[in-house]
Amino acid sequence: MSADDIRAGDQVFISPAAGVHGHGCWWGMVVSRMPALVNGAVYLRVVPVDEIADNAKVTTFYARLSELLVRRMP
C-alpha cells in the first residue's frame, strides 16, 4: 500500500501498531492525506468515526503504512 492508495472518505484504524502513540485505538475517517518524506509513511487528517455527526475535531497523524488498517468506503 502507498499513501496514494488512501482516499478521503476511507476509514483507518488509529493505533500504536501504526505508529500513532498516546491516542488509543479507534477508527477514523480520512479527511485528507499527504505522503511523508519517509518511505512507507503518510500524514493523515482524520476525524473519529464515532464523532462524525458532531462537530468533530480534525486531527493530523503521522502513520506507518505497513501496519495501518484501511477500510475502503464505496
Description:
By secondary structure, the protein is mostly beta strands. Helices cover 0% and strands 42% of the residues. The chain has strands at 11-14, 26-35, 41-48, 59-64, 69-71. A 5-stranded antiparallel β-sheet has the order 4-3-2-1-5, with no helix packed on it. It is globular, with a radius of gyration of 11 Å. It starts with 10 loop residues before the first strand and ends with a strand. The mean pLDDT is 90.
Please write out the topology.
Layout: E1 11-14, E2 26-35, E3 41-48, E4 59-64, E5 69-71
Antiparallel strand pairs: 1-2, 1-5, 2-3, 3-4
The helix content is: under 10%
Shape: globular
Uncertain spans, ≥5 residues at pLDDT below 50? none
Structural class determined from secondary elements:
mainly beta
Task: Name the average pLDDT.
Answer: 90
Number of helices: 0
Strand order of the largest sheet: 4-3-2-1-5
Alpha-carbon Rg, integer = 11 Å
